[in-house]
Amino acid sequence: MKLEDDHGLVLVVACSLTFDSKNMPDKKLLEKITDSKKIKQKKRKEIFEEFVKLSTQEKPQVYFWVWVVDNFLIDEINIRQANREAMRRSLVELLRKIDNKKIFWIFIDRSDNYVFDELEKTKLYYKLR
């Protein structure tokens, strides 16, 4: 996977962090997670590598899924809908890895009020820009 800026692509990462006090990711990692457009490419790569490391342990601290939408779908359905579809597909794949009953909140890095049928509406929290 390329983690550099690819024009014409939408890349979405859905991530689940472990909130078991004995097995939580380092607070420093959590502080790095912000709007991806504000993070330099080198820092995004470091965060991604940390996610990979934390997700492959015997007791994973992070579960994640990456979904990429290409320019053909963007041209067909528009950038907003392509972004929504990438988010939906990432969430669906992530939910295959974790128990939906253990999800307390979903943070979405967009001001769009997307609704995903795969999730209970009460669990959604929209982070406004």
Description:
Helix 3 (71-77) crosses helix 4 (79-97). The two termini are 27 Å apart. This protein has 4 helices and 4 strands, in the order βααβααββ. The chain has helices spanning 27-32, 41-55, 71-77, 79-97; strands spanning 10-17, 62-69, 106-109, 124-127.
Quick one: overall form?
globular
What is the C-alpha radius of gyration, as a whole number of Å? 15 Å
Q: Give the total of beta strands.
A: 4
Give, in spatial order, the strands making up the sheet with the most strands.
1-2
H/E topology pattern = EHHEHHEE
**Helix coverage percent of residues?**
25-40%
- Calculate the mean pLDDT score and round it: 76
Strand content: 15-25%
Write out key terms for the chains shown.
129 residues, alpha+beta, two-stranded antiparallel ribbon, two-stranded parallel sheet, 4 strands, 19% strand, globular
Question: What's this, in brief?
Answer:
The protein has 129 residues and is of the alpha+beta class. The chain has 4 helices and 4 strands, in the order βααβααββ.
List the helices and strands and how they pair.
Layout: E1 10-17, H1 27-32, H2 41-55, E2 62-69, H3 71-77, H4 79-97, E3 106-109, E4 124-127
Parallel strand pairs: 3-4
Antiparallel strand pairs: 1-2
